[in-house]
Amino acid sequence: MSNVGGFMKADKEKKVLVMGGLIVDKYIVTDKYPLKGEDVLITDSFNRVGGCTINVASTLNNLGVDAYPVSTIGGDENGNIIEKYLLEANINKNCVIVEKDKNTGYCLVILDGTSERTFMTYKGCEEEFSCNLINRDLLKEIKFVYLTGYYLLGSFAAEILSFIKDIKELGASIMFDPGPLVDEIQSEILQLALDLCDIFIPNVNEIEKVKIKLNITQEFGELAEKNKIQYVIIKNGSKGVTAYKGNKKYERLAYSVKAIDTTGAGDSFAAGCIYGFLNEMEFEEILNVGSACGALNTTFIGPNGKYGIENIERLMKEENDNA
């Protein structure tokens, strides 16, 4: 690996599987979110390829990491949009299979004047999983796996976790992001995902749902140590993150930027952390890089903004200069 400014250039031999399914985000932009039964004007509408998988893969791609999104997509218009995007963005599609007679999922994203967004999701064939999605030769090169809880909502959850167990035994590190629908994951599936992960990265609302779902009463730092989770990173939007490495607690405030759209910010944060872990950074520096990625992503409309290591370094320098 070679230095780029203060950062390490990504090692292409350290490949990442990004598991969670590919969908299309259908944006509706309005000045305010309507009350029930209310009518408001739409100021803009457009499509973006979205979902946690592509959001994480796109950020890793920005940082020069060789990322492989894992998904089944349909042969419909939404599937065609995804295929075109992967080609144009130069993102690996070796682990993406097209099922011509099936439909691709999509998400309606309502973005209001406060930069907040509300989601309504239609699940398609992206929830389907087979080990055949991943080439056997590629498995030996995977150093890191990102898994979103969205992928554990369907009937393929047990098969997905069996695959995760196998690839972990080959030496890959596992990051588990439970997602906002974590309380709809079956309890035994959720517990197994926690048992398998090395890094647990919920947001502040999701961690409370996990506690309720699994009847957890301990502080999560203590629980993580008991379950052999090496790191717990709790995202709290514009308030920053609280993280644990064993029993040691870390706090990281969010970077100050002019946010336009918060869609995908948490996913970009996760990808920045993966970059840090791959490059064996100190934990505080990992949180810095993740926070910078999450903040930069909010300065673009849509979940997949284009920025690079130099933008991260500039944001960090600006914070240090203003300290």
Automatic annotation (TrEMBL):
GO MF annotation list: kinase activity
Superkingdom per UniProt: Bacteria
InterPro entries in the record: PfkB_dom (IPR011611), Ribo/fructo_kinase (IPR002139), Ribokinase-like (IPR029056)
SUPFAM superfamilies per record: Ribokinase-like
Keyword entries, A-Z: Kinase, Transferase
Carbohydrate kinase PfkB domain mapped to chain residues: 14-300
Pfam families per UniProt: PfkB
GO aspect biological process, one term: phosphate-containing compound metabolic process
Protein name according to UniProt: PfkB domain protein
